[in-house]
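Researcher: Predict the fold of MFS transporter.
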Amino acid sequence: MTAAESMTPAQAAAPQDDAGDGILGRRHRALTLGIISVVSLIAFEASAVNTAMPVAARALDGIGLYAFAFSAFFTASLFAMTLSGEWCDRSGPLAPLFAGIAAFGTGLVVAGTARSMWMFVAGRGVQGIGGGLVIVALYVVVGRAYPERLRASVMASFSAAWVVPVIVGPLVAGAVTEQLGWRWVFLAIPVLILLPLAVMLPALRALPPGPPAGTADRRRILLALAVAAGAGLLQYAGQDLTPWALLPAAAGLALLVPCIRRLLPAGTFRARRGLPSVVLLRGIAQGSFVAAESFIPLMLVTERGLSATLAGFSLTGGGLSWALGSYTQSRRRAEPYRERLMSLGMGLVALAVVLMATVLVHGVPVWVAGASWVFGGYGMGLTISSGAVLLLKLSRPGEEGTNAASLQTSDALGSILLVGLAGVLFVSSGGGSVTTAAAGSAAPPHAFAAVFAAAAAFALVGAYVATRLAPREAAGRGVTSVPPSGDPGA
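Model: Structure tokens for MFS transporter follow.
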């Protein structure tokens, strides 16, 4: 066993100092700490929202829009990621990074002061714009500020920055929700962002200029805007469920279908072998997992009577096992079995969702919820990280950036569509009748069962798609034929 193979997950994620000038060396320390702090705050917000959301939705009499509060974030970020990429290429990452952080903080304030569920959803959308701008800008910062030998360590630190928030986020958010109110979960985070910004600002200003870039690709920005608008219209139609909802549904499909086909690799929706199936699988994996996870705290609060703190804490094991799954697939001896690992990962996600559904039966111990999500998180760690590795392996030289953008688009779109579908199933099954905690009402168990059944079914579809990840070999030499994005065959 080599030294690399014997490393623990914590050691693998820890920043390594190379030749005295690593990512925590004097040259890069301020920027590294600032980046990790920003990522940690975003991660904390993500875990805190799952804890506070059931209380917020019931307080605002908005359980019927519960799924919309999640999907609005993904819808807005879908557009913002493409915008940020074009903005960074044109004028560098500093402006989109700070604009994104400002939008993220503004969205938190809007959500925290909301007097209606629609205002809360709007705040979540503004947060999504900020999140999409920030995540792409941070990747560009890494590319320009760090030498190639240090970039792997920086990316490992990105993953490590999620570990602590996943552990403490639900506990802190639950305690704040119960003691001070759910609004403070949103209102406190913007203040915390100021410190990492102050730490990293001098280093950001000293970034070397990027290569000369032409004008922004307005076509891709407009396509992304059309995709986001189409997804939003579909979600609105799904929440309405009246004959009039057919109009926004038709408009949403008219925008979404042709535009997304031009943003993703050809053959994606037919699960063509190789890169298209990698992109498709990422969207299915992300969407099925998030769709189920979004309703777990609500189910545990309304069906099993858990506090917001305990309900949010039930997801903690999944975050930790996700990191372990990511570490497992990174081991050298796992490389020949990567496609099988991804199929296994999706099978574990399906198993986790089915086990979670059994918690709806009151005779089943409630701890099964936390235990089941450990399996789901481990499966996602195997699948998501392996997808990124395969994407780079199957990309032609010079197309890595475009293909990576397609992968992120698939992630966001999968979350939008499947969370939206979960919301439709939940509301149409009577779940939207939940009002306030004081009313003592609860969604019928079959409303949650419908959500979990759909999520498990899509996870099984993902397990099948994972069998199509290996590309066909050309002339027996393993040459991969990857059609460009925008081909009508998508």
